[in-house]
Amino acid sequence: MAKGYLHYINLGYKPKKDELIAVYKFKPRKGVGKKEAAGAIAAESSTGTWTTLSTMTLKRMTKIGAKVYKMYGDYAEIAYPLDLFELGNMPEILSSIAGNIFGMKEVDTIRLVDVKWPTKLKNSFKGPQFGIKGVRKLLGVKKRPLVGTIVKPKLGLTSKEHAKVAYEAWVGGLDIVKDDENLTSQPFNKFKKRVEETLKLKWKAEKETGERKMYMANVTAETREMLKRAKFLKDMGNEYAMVDILTVGFAGLQTLRDEMDKLKLVLHGHRAMHAALTRNPNHGISMSVLAEISRLIGTDQLHVGTAVGKMEGKKKDIIYIVDDVEGKFIRKRGHMLAENWGKIKPMFAVCSGGLHPGLVPPLVKMFGEDIIIQAGGGVHGHPRGTRKGATAMRQAVDATLRGVPLREYAKTHKELKEAIEKWGVYKG
Ligand code: CAP
Ligand code: MG
After folding, report:
1. Are residues 215 and 241 in the same domain?
2. 66-76: b (≥16 Cβ within 10 Å) or e
């Protein structure tokens, strides 16, 4: 064990205002002390390695290195001088604070729980272009939750069939229709054809309903191709682009976000693959940290989970994530650090995954009205099809905002009644 790691322990050190702070939860390997393990984390994520070096004195390495300034239970708080990071470079920041440390032998498990981003580093990123206010202005919906669907089945429909399903959802009353996370440009449903067919029916639905309707087309691909697809969306007069923030990588996401300044498209962030990092409570990276990264780089909307749907995610954790996504001054909560988001706009929290009309009330109760509620199976699985499923979702939102119990409202709203008969209502 390199004794050098202990030089990175500086309990009682007071982090400077412009330092980045990371909170780690970790379990030292058998035979490794907590301080040695914490020192190893600080060293490997900043200036150190396993042995002393001929190229720089240990004293200097620890002077400019990260400092473990607080340890409690299984947690350590580590302060990083700002100069250890390249402004505006998310890949480098994560190669430091979320890189080698996950594979170090000194720990059995380690999880990056939260990060406090210094203002100078925060402001080196663009943040959301539209944010909640901008999206609401675009849609002309001042208050209520936005309601959307994902065209289902995930894959397999032709472009024309896809467009038809989207049309049924829009005329049934939904604001938004999105592509699924794994639908891009497959042989049976090419991107350009899908966009052309779907936009034709979007404009038809807008005319028929008198409401703005949004289509979130998935541009996920190699970065240059993503830019081409985003440009095509703009040229076609679309307002949105959707991207899978993890599978395209944060460098790709930064490049796509930069392009949005020119294209002025609302950027919807899907988090497919997040659970590879976030699911194990003892190892990986918390969804709060991923949400903060997405907000810094600048998606306008981000999936946060539901606590009541089909995906894992505890209510308390998701409430924290919604704070990280929509909040401005975030207070300290448990191990989570306080944060002042300053001029970085809030993102719209997106609840999706196993949702249906019966689950709308708890979502609004837990997360408020500034959410986007998306249901795929919960719309297209309605006994009378997509259009009625969409109507049932809107009815569930209307009932919730009026404070009328769903079963009561269903007495005079057939589509909701049929949805409840099939899926029930939340019994939390
Ligand atoms: C939901 C969904 C979303 C997940 C993503 C799906 O469909 O389209 O991708 O919700 O999960 O493919 O499962 P259903 P999360 O409404 O039919 O479940 O939002 O937690 O990232
Ligand atoms: Mg999906």
Report:
1. yes
2. bbbbbbeebbb
CB 293 within 8 A of CB 299: no
Q: Does the pTM of the predicted model rise above 0.90?
A: yes
Residue among 150, 277, 317, 372 to mutate when testing ligand 1 (max atoms within 8 A of CB): 150
**Domain span holding position 255:** 131-423
Atom of ligand 1 nearest to the CA of 305: 20
Question: Which token pair is 318?
Answer: 């998701």
**Is the CB of residue 380 below 6 angstroms from any atom belonging to ligand 1?**
no
Q: Is residue 95 part of a domain?
A: yes
The tokens for 366 are 């837990």
Residue 373 is assigned to a structural domain of this protein: yes
152 is catalytic: yes
Cα–ligand 1 centroid distance for 279 (angstroms)? 16
Per-residue pLDDT reduced to its tens digit, 130-188: 999 999 999 999 999 999 999 999 999 999 999 999 999 999 999 999 999 999 999 99
| 384-394 pLDDT tens trace | 999 999 999 99
Tell me which residue has its CA closest to atom 13 in ligand 1: 353
- The CATH number given to whatever domain includes residue 7 is 3.30.70.150
Residue from 105, 92, 155, 139 nearest 5 by CA: 105
If asked whether residues 198 and 149 sit together in one domain, one would say yes
Confidence of residue 365 (pLDDT cuts 50, 70, 90): very high
In a domain, 428, yes or no: no
Q: How many domains does the chain have?
A: 2
Residue 394, Cα to own-chain centre: how many angstroms?
A: 24
Each residue of 189-220: pLDDT tens digit? 999 999 999 999 999 999 999 999 999 999 99
Instruction: Tell how far CA 88 is from the center of its chain.
Output: 19
* Of 86, 103, 122, the domain-final residue: 122
Judge contact between 15 and 66, C-beta under 8 A: no
